[in-house]
């Protein structure tokens, strides 16, 4: 049991204890903050698959976050308005069922990741960053000019979607769903990292020529990683839209992409709980420093500078050492 | 049955031509030594076979034209490469290096560890922390884990201690006895004589001599290899 394992356990315990205390103290706002942190952590855990394992610096992950959000918004708005989503050769109805919405969000954002990956993985480095940014901007302006679903004003959903057996309007129950997803994705990430696919992907990031020499295609490995990454981030987007009961083009903005990268970098790239540490830290800074100054992001910038300059393993690396994530 | 066939292979690094016509045939189960002084085109030939650089001429493996395949597809046809300089996945453990390259077949981690017991002892150790000889064993093991039909060993014993070299040559002899086709590049004529059936000598990017090992006389070695 090493120091990183203990820190991860402490973080997970915090994600259980703090909202538990908030229920006891009747502090629903704290639960909302914790839910926001967990959803951001989920989005960042998605990016960590592409960035941490695959070395893909994507500045377009808000596309998947936003697609997940719009998947929820579109399906739920049709359900609340009792209008079919599609009424032609066959009929597709909207839905207020979270499992169906999650599936739709993960599949659509995974497909978008596949399409973006097929085109952008022909490049690398700065060109890859620019292409993913370009896709992000295209998606953002498409959402702005899509009046059927609110355009620039976004889309409101009156009642949070439902999950069988749970009252999702109860903040702690919705939080529990989000935390369950985060734990599942982190477990999947840990398994993926140790799987032949994860090892090959990690190797492709380090020495692509060697990977080709053993019969593996680095681009295909990276494409699969990007699809998984996009699907997880899309799922986080659907949960985020459900948390706010609102979806808008801002979920697709390049600032959102930047924030997701910041979560991962602050917490620790490729660290299992790096996205969790980064997202929790970000939400805490946003809440506490935001209460002091509207310009709280200046302080966030200073923290980011410090992490990049002095602790390249992120917060987790600063506490546990810069060695290999699970060494 | 001919497994690999190169005919009049030419290749260039930009404007500089490196290969001017290399001919080479390797039959299934046969071990062929490729020799030549430094800079004569041995590693370039290997890079062309593995499709790591473009080449002109005929390049056929098991009846399939390699010339249009990307390198990973060539490897999937059954060409296993142990590159010069080992180049293991440094951040992965020994076991992870083997698993990352694995494809279904007769070779699995247990069999590799039987061939190189030291790898079994260092299963959880990072590749970067292994000695040069152990890294070389790992590079061979990793290539075997792809279950190749032909193994290319590019200077597999270079810079190693005599005892480790002996272990590597013993492993090569075992592979030969198991019927693995091999292209072995090395400077040790004595060891190559024991391990290989035939030899090809390259000089200034051309194959200038080819024949059975027993026909590689001292005079031929003196003329082309400067031994």
UniProtKB/TrEMBL annotation, chain A:
Topology within the bilayer: Multi-pass membrane protein
Protein localization: Cell membrane
Superkingdom, natural source: Bacteria
GO molecular function terms attached to this record: branched-chain amino acid transmembrane transporter activity
Signal peptide: none
Matches recorded under Pfam families: BPD_transp_2 (PF02653)
GO CC, one annotated term: plasma membrane
Predominant location category: membrane
InterPro entries xref list: ABC_transp_permease, LivM-like
Bilayer-spanning residue ranges: 35-56, 63-80, 100-119, 126-149, 172-190, 221-240, 260-283, 295-319
Keywords in alphabetical order: Cell membrane, Membrane, Transmembrane, Transmembrane helix
PANTHER family with a match to the protein in the record: ABC TRANSPORTER ATP-BINDING PROTEIN, HIGH-AFFINITY BRANCHED-CHAIN AMINO ACID TRANSPORT SYSTEM PERMEASE
Protein name: Branched-chain amino acid transport system permease protein
Naturally occurring in which organism (per UniProt): Salipiger aestuarii
TrEMBL record, chain B:
Domain ABC transporter residues, every copy: 4-227
Keyword check for Nucleotide-binding: yes
Pfam families, alphabetized: ABC_tran
Keywords: Amino-acid transport, ATP-binding, Nucleotide-binding, Transport
Alphabetized InterPro entries for the sequence: AAA+_ATPase (IPR003593), ABC_transporter-like_ATP-bd (IPR003439), ABC_transporter-like_CS (IPR017871), BCAA_Transport_ATP-bd_LivF (IPR052156), P-loop_NTPase (IPR027417)
An MF annotation (GO) of this entry: branched-chain amino acid transmembrane transporter activity
GO biological process, one term: L-amino acid transport
Lyase listed as a keyword: no
Signal peptide per UniProt: none
PANTHER family in the record: ABC TRANSPORTER ATP-BINDING PROTEIN, HIGH-AFFINITY BRANCHED-CHAIN AMINO ACID TRANSPORT ATP-BINDING PROTEIN LIVF
Family of the protein in this entry: Belongs to the ABC transporter superfamily.
Listed name of the protein: Branched-chain amino acid transport system ATP-binding protein
